[in-house]
Amino acid sequence: MENTRKSTFRSQIILLPTYISIIGVLVFFGLLISVYMNVNNGKQVLKEQFQMSVYLRAESDSLQRDSLGKALKHIAGVKDVKYTSKEQGLIEWQKENGVNEADILGFNPIPDAYYLTFLEKYIQGDSLKNIKANIENSLVVREAFYKQAMADNLDKYARNIGLILSSITLLLGIISVLLIYQTVRITLYSKRYIIKSMQLVGATASFIRRPFIVQMLMLGVISGITASFIILFLSLYFTKNFEFLPWIDLNKQFVVTIISLTLLGAFISSISAYTAINKYLRMKIDDLI
Length: 289
Fold this sequence. Notes:
By secondary structure, the chain is of the alpha+beta class. Helix content is 72%, strand content 8%. The chain has nine helices and four strands, in the order αβαβααβαβαααα. It is rod-shaped and about 100 Å long.
């Protein structure tokens, strides 16, 4: 009994470097997933802060303004509608520029206005042009204005960043998979004589593979869960200490990360074990040396 315990403990200690190595690779890949998700969230936040200004005619009354406001909220793609009266607009202008235009001109030149923000996918040239044209058909509206160049640049930069990040994630993801694969193969290399001995005494290939694959599968699952909590800790630290990262969604990030890393760790570890064991089963005894 004592010898059995010692043997079990020894086998677990032997797996410790493998466990640490897989965790390291999964943490690296998990951080990459987190960066990808948070940059995408950041792009969405920036794009959804883009505004279209809808200036109203001076002769419009409160009933017409309220009716227009309700109509604007029902336009496809509009996320939020904010109304600013000409009096409030004058106050805000004075705060920003330090000048009271009403004192200089003798009247308030700031019109009543609605300010619209949009869902991310609508921040592109054609969508905004169509929305602008529809809004300006209203008799209450004097002008709908937005910065076309800014909208085009936001859309262009978002696409480029998405393409670059996707390429980097794919490349480093492949590297992570290969690192786990090699780590498992190196671990099973030390057990090649045991595998061959079992084969020589008549054990079937599936019987030989099963305990090693299950062992590596569990190791991959535990490594994935451990790596996920390490990434959660790092995310909490960065969120707390770096206020310029307001878009980190920890709940969503943790769910995606723990599922991704657990599945990745389990899948790659078990597949690596399967291919490594098959290699040793096909080898001759002399080739094992």
